[in-house]
Amino acid sequence: VIRPEPCCVCGSRIRFGKTAIKCCHCQLLLHTKCREQCPSLCTPRPHHHAWPCEGVLADFAPSTPPLVPILVVQCVTEVETRGLTETGLYRVPGAEQLVREWKRKLLRAGGALPALSSVTDIHVVCGVLKDFLRGLKEPLVTFSLHPAFLKAADIPDDAARDAALCHVVSKLPPANRDTLAFLMLHLLRVSHSPDCKMDVLNLSRVFGPTLVGHSSANPTPLAIMEDTPRQSKVLACLLSLPPSFWRGFVETEQENLVPM
């Protein structure tokens, strides 16, 4: 569940991050424990519209906070369910053809995503998430705020640097900010898994180019050369911020807390 909604059987709210059952015909949503009390007949509703093949992050975000695209939530949930014992998570590539096929399938499904549990190789799920983020028209830190992130990460004093980064993060568009927070909490959990052998430095090298990117859609060769090491530095600095800062964006209501 990405957007908290009431159970159609008992009426109580299904919280953010919880597993629920949804009818593929009428979209009726209910707690897994309420399945036995569910009526058997349903009335089909129109299918969800497919997402665009590309766009900015807000094009994929839900209408209510936290503004994290369900594709991102579903990939992260699947990785954390069965991937935190895999060595080289996000560094080991998945089969390119499967990554492309599943990304296309998820984008075509729109808000009604097929289950990723049928994807045997968890590295394919990681590849789908990375490819989705890489394919956005603008990186999560946005073109306009890119220089501010680089400048903040260069501040030598740790406390001043953290304060500057928190300030710049708060200026991001809401969908970018919430999704960045959701991903930072996820990557911190990956970094804390001894089996993954993916510390903050490794994760920063993998995700820096994707999440930080450049200050324009068509950077010059010189800008690419100069930005590459700084992208990893920015992401490492973001991952050094306290988890409580990031949780403040995705845990907007007490009842929506994600139990991790």
UniProtKB/TrEMBL annotation:
Keywords: Metal-binding, Zinc. The keyword Zinc applies. GO terms for cellular component: centralspindlin complex; cleavage furrow; midbody; nucleus; spindle midzone. Gene3D superfamilies: 3.30.60.20, Rho GTPase activation protein. One of its GO terms (biological process) is Rho protein signal transduction. Residues 55-246 form the Rho-GAP domain. Residues 1-42 form the Phorbol-ester/DAG-type domain. One of its GO terms (molecular function) is GTPase activator activity. It holds the Pfam family RhoGAP. This is RGAP1 protein. It comes from Sylvia borin.
